[in-house]
Amino acid sequence: MSISMVYSLKDLTAIIPELILTGFAFAILLIDLWLPKRLKTLNGLLALFGVIFAFAAVVVMYNANMTAFNNMIVMDKASNFASIIMLITAFVAIIMSFDFLKREEINLGEYYEVLLFSLVAMQILASTYNLIVMFIAVETLSIGMYILTGFLRDKDESVEGAMKYFILGSFASTFLVLGIGLFYGLFGSVDLNVIKSSLSGASSFYKWISILAFLFVFVGFGFKIAAFPFHSWTPDVYASAPTPMSAFMSVAPKAAAFLALLRFLAVGMGPIEPNWTKVLWVVAVLTMTFGNTVALWQKDLKRLLGYSSIAHAGYMLVGIVAANELGYGAVMFYLFSYVFLNLGAFSVAELISKKEDRGTEIENLKGFGYKHPLIAASMLVFMFGLAGVPPTVGFVGKYYLFSAAVKSHLYWLAIIGVVNSAISAYFYLNVIVTMYMKGENESKLELFNSVPVKAVVLLAAICVLYIGIFPSSFLDIALGSIGF
């Protein structure tokens, strides 16, 4: 069977947001060659406009439902909703980067180019039912993340974190390729819809081999979402990467990977749902329990948010294990709420950081509540939100995730999730106690004087409260995005 290599306007229409981002990335590549050092900020502005135009394209085409490039790419509400999450995250990360790059004296166009190309790969990952395309997207975005993690070249921890991320990521990719190869060997296709139809009528032997292939593929996805036991890179990378990139990596790749995982499980692995839900039940419990337990002993704010990210991956896996429409929609809503919670918390980490992105220890927040009341109040909102305290969006997200588990009669999973959420309250409240109840910091804390980052903190806090109090329309959009 021959595959036509002639693509139509419809094919290109389906990837308009990706084409816009690619065009702006190449524009930065060319313009950066001619810009004097004092005008390097224009690279960031150009990247910002690229994200804005891509966001507008996604919003205009939100209700589109089309396939392209011989059904390798799909544009639907789910991919567009994930794109919105990723583009908002990129927009904020770029704003966080303006003053940060100046301070660190690394205001280079390559930073924004790699970010935009990585963003394109993430959008492709969220927009396909083809395992090979998923693999290419995962590898492309991973290369970008490795580079951005080690962008602080004079900071040993940054280079070390990038190397650790690269080595473990390469190892995870090996399993992903092996799983894809098994699926192709079994069913002669890497299209999830074909795999689903073939698996429905397959013999027991084929189904058991498919379970093995699923496990291999899940290693690759588990690495990207930071699920236990594929999580070990997360705290080191978040702590060592430039803070704007730590914020970006904590949300955008997760949104792409979780949607790709949802497509893989709900569509391709649908016929063996009872098998993979049992596996992910255990993984979800171990992930949220490990993340919350180890976070209890963290002294650095960025490392704490790293272990927190692991725990929240466990919460989102609860929605996937529920394997119902409410669970899948709750995962998408939680990812959306996570944008404001995590970006806000990392923005505060950037504000208390010093040259070479150091000084993010929680102890440095002593007396912060009285010296910088608005920023501290926003941080309080973020910590309450991550802990799942009403009326924040974090409470709403966890409520619907655990409700989905109860709806599928997974009572113990829901109970374990609630207990873990209670455990997490201790280390989140520790940050609040440090800000308000532990006296003055012995060394004078000078807040990083970045107006854009301060604006991000305040706006994110407002969004956390607003969406938490009025979640209905946002939840409806998230639930409506799931159509597979």
TrEMBL record:
It is found in: Cell inner membrane; Endomembrane system; Membrane. Residues 129-424 form the NADH:quinone oxidoreductase/Mrp antiporter transmembrane domain. InterPro entries: NADH-Q_OxRdtase_suN/2, ND/Mrp_TM. Its EC number is 7.1.1.-. The chain crosses the membrane at residues 12-35, 42-61, 81-101, 108-126, 165-185, 205-226, 247-267, 279-297, 329-352, 373-390, 410-435, 447-469. It comes from the Bacteria. Its main location: membrane. It is a multi-pass membrane protein. It catalyses: a quinone + NADH + 5 H(+)(in) = a quinol + NAD(+) + 4 H(+)(out). It is an enzyme of class 7 (translocase). HAMAP family: NDH1_NuoN_1. NDH-1 is composed of 14 different subunits. Subunits NuoA, H, J, K, L, M, N constitute the membrane sector of the complex. Belongs to the complex I subunit 2 family. NDH-1 shuttles electrons from NADH, via FMN and iron-sulfur (Fe-S) centers, to quinones in the respiratory chain. The immediate electron acceptor for the enzyme in this species is believed to be ubiquinone. Couples the redox reaction to proton translocation (for every two electrons transferred, four hydrogen ions are translocated across the cytoplasmic membrane), and thus conserves the redox energy in a proton gradient. This is NADH-quinone oxidoreductase subunit N.
